[in-house]
Amino acid sequence: MPVDIKSPAGAPHARILGVGGYRPSRVVTNEQICQVIDSTDEWITTRTGIKERRWATAEETVAVMSLAAAGKALAAAGVEAEQIGLVVISTVTHLAQTPSLAAMVANELGALNAAAFDISAACAGFCHGLALAQDAVRGGSAEYVLVIGVERLSDLTDMNDRSTAFIFGDGAGAAVVGPSETPGIGPVVWGADGAQYEAIGQTFNWDVLREQTDIGFPALRMNGQQVFRWASYQMVPVAKRALEKAGISAEDLDAFIPHQANMRITDAMIKALKLPEHVPVARDIARTGNTSAASIPLAMERMLEEGEAPHGGVALLIGFGAGLVYAAQVVVLP
């Protein structure tokens, strides 16, 4: 005879309850970068909008930064670590194939009953994590989910590569997602364009080191023009679909928080979306650089702390990066 299996009892909706960030102590200015590469502060600022970035010290590991950001997010949410049922970390700079960084962080936090895993979705990773968190809360897999984006991109930066040496920064951002009686995270619009696979990646794969031990350490490489064109034009329809799926228009937004890749990409998206002037836009890249998976939660935290975006306001998030992959959704800010 057929056996009836109980369905998990989830929440009607999910929302971000708290956000927290960690910015490394070491500030690296454009002038310092230009001591190594042939460039100028004016050229870097004009091309990217970056004035400075944060690089981690030896003590500021991805685990240390994750724990600091997570602690702030939990405190802001009013949630205890033992209430967390799932920890999702997006990173490309946990330089151990296994075990996951999430398992380590969950244990150190005291989230001893939580499932934990890492995802590799590069600069779109935080938005991927939010989508997974919402599904877990609404599906009954976890009451509270901790989503972390963390990177030490300075570990993979080639200081002799004039095209990338000034772009990347380090940091961590975290969000606690939990149950809500009203919608707080809109439907995700996500995907991958594998035809652009070679646009961003490593200079060589780890397995090359088995045969060649004198080639140094792999670094990040990027075809800047290819990524700029793709992000500036292909991500606008993605953002529009996220708005449509959430049932709102650009006029309804209280903030636009895109991945902090390049100020010119952000400006191109603002123009193409016809974003109203009253909508504040995250420009955290000026002081933080491109921190990949950490960039959106770090920018969100700064906008809330500095009063640029209102608590409880509606924000459009969009991440895009190596793969090339993307994800966007509308959220209610904590």
Automatic annotation (TrEMBL):
<keyword id="KW-0443">Lipid metabolism</keyword>
<feature type="domain" description="Beta-ketoacyl-[acyl-carrier-protein] synthase III C-terminal">
    <location>
        <begin position="243"/>
        <end position="331"/>
    </location>
</feature>
<protein>
    <recommendedName>
        <fullName>Beta-ketoacyl-[acyl-carrier-protein] synthase III</fullName>
        <ecNumber>2.3.1.180</ecNumber>
    </recommendedName>
</protein>
<feature type="active site">
    <location>
        <position position="123"/>
    </location>
</feature>
<keyword id="KW-0963">Cytoplasm</keyword>
<dbReference type="Pfam" id="PF08541">
    <property type="entry name" value="ACP_syn_III_C"/>
</dbReference>
<comment type="subunit">
    <text>Homodimer.</text>
</comment>
<dbReference type="InterPro" id="IPR013751">
    <property type="entry name" value="ACP_syn_III_N"/>
</dbReference>
<dbReference type="Pfam" id="PF08545">
    <property type="entry name" value="ACP_syn_III"/>
</dbReference>
<dbReference type="InterPro" id="IPR016039">
    <property type="entry name" value="Thiolase-like"/>
</dbReference>
<keyword id="KW-0511">Multifunctional enzyme</keyword>
<comment type="pathway">
    <text>Lipid metabolism; fatty acid biosynthesis.</text>
</comment>
<dbReference type="GO" id="GO:0004315">
    <property type="term" value="F:3-oxoacyl-[acyl-carrier-protein] synthase activity"/>
</dbReference>
<feature type="region of interest" description="ACP-binding">
    <location>
        <begin position="260"/>
        <end position="264"/>
    </location>
</feature>
<dbReference type="InterPro" id="IPR013747">
    <property type="entry name" value="ACP_syn_III_C"/>
</dbReference>
<keyword id="KW-0808">Transferase</keyword>
<dbReference type="InterPro" id="IPR004655">
    <property type="entry name" value="FabH"/>
</dbReference>
<dbReference type="GO" id="GO:0005737">
    <property type="term" value="C:cytoplasm"/>
</dbReference>
<keyword id="KW-0444">Lipid biosynthesis</keyword>
<feature type="domain" description="Beta-ketoacyl-[acyl-carrier-protein] synthase III N-terminal">
    <location>
        <begin position="117"/>
        <end position="194"/>
    </location>
</feature>
<comment type="function">
    <text>Catalyzes the condensation reaction of fatty acid synthesis by the addition to an acyl acceptor of two carbons from malonyl-ACP. Catalyzes the first condensation reaction which initiates fatty acid synthesis and may therefore play a role in governing the total rate of fatty acid production. Possesses both acetoacetyl-ACP synthase and acetyl transacylase activities. Its substrate specificity determines the biosynthesis of branched-chain and/or straight-chain of fatty acids.</text>
</comment>
<feature type="active site">
    <location>
        <position position="290"/>
    </location>
</feature>
<keyword id="KW-0276">Fatty acid metabolism</keyword>
<keyword id="KW-0275">Fatty acid biosynthesis</keyword>
<keyword id="KW-0012">Acyltransferase</keyword>
<feature type="active site">
    <location>
        <position position="259"/>
    </location>
</feature>
<dbReference type="GO" id="GO:0006633">
    <property type="term" value="P:fatty acid biosynthetic process"/>
</dbReference>
<comment type="similarity">
    <text>Belongs to the thiolase-like superfamily. FabH family.</text>
</comment>
<dbReference type="GO" id="GO:0033818">
    <property type="term" value="F:beta-ketoacyl-acyl-carrier-protein synthase III activity"/>
</dbReference>
